[in-house]
Amino acid sequence: MIEKEDAKKVAESLGNNLIGVSHDEKNFVKLPDNFWGYFARGHHKDGAFGVIVTYSENKSDVDDLIKKYEEWVAKNKKSDSEST
C-alpha cells in the first residue's frame, strides 16, 4: 500500500506537470479535432508513477483505451505472479 506522504508527492508532481503543460499553447498544436491524449511519467527515491489523460468527443475512444489498459494490466499481473 502506498504511504500517504508518497501519494501526496505523486499527486503534487502530476498537478504541477499538468499545470505547466496547460500554460503553453504550443503543447496543443496540431492535436486531432476529436481525440488526444497526454502521458506523464515520474519517479522519486521510493518508486515510479505514470498517468494518462485522454480526451475524445467519442466516449467509446476513452472506454476502449481503458479496456486495453485493463487487459494489459491483467495479463502482466499473471506473468508477474507466475515468475515468482
Output the keywords.
alpha+beta, two-stranded antiparallel sheet, 2 strands, 52% helix
Spatial strand arrangement across the major sheet: 1-2
Provide the helix percentage. Answer: 40-55%
State the shape.
flat
Order of helices and strands: HEEH
Q: How many distinct beta strands?
A: 2
**Structural classification:** alpha+beta
Percent strand equals 15-25%
Query: How big is the Rg?
Result: 16 Å
Mean pLDDT: 81
Span between termini: 19 Å
Summed up, the helix count is 2
Total domain modules: 1
**Sheet with most strands:** 2 strands, antiparallel
pLDDT below 50 for ≥5 consecutive residues: which ranges?
none
Task: Draw up the topology in text.
Blueprint: H1 4-22, E1 35-44, E2 47-56, H2 59-83
Antiparallel strand pairs: 1-2
Describe what you observe in this structure.
The chain is α+β, with helices and mostly antiparallel strands. It has one domain (4-83). The chain is 52% helix and 24% strand. It has 2 helices and 2 strands, in the order H-E-E-H. 0% of the residues are buried. The model has no long low-confidence stretch (mean pLDDT 81).
Short description:
This protein has 84 residues and is an alpha+beta fold. It has helices spanning 4-22, 59-83; strands spanning 35-44, 47-56.
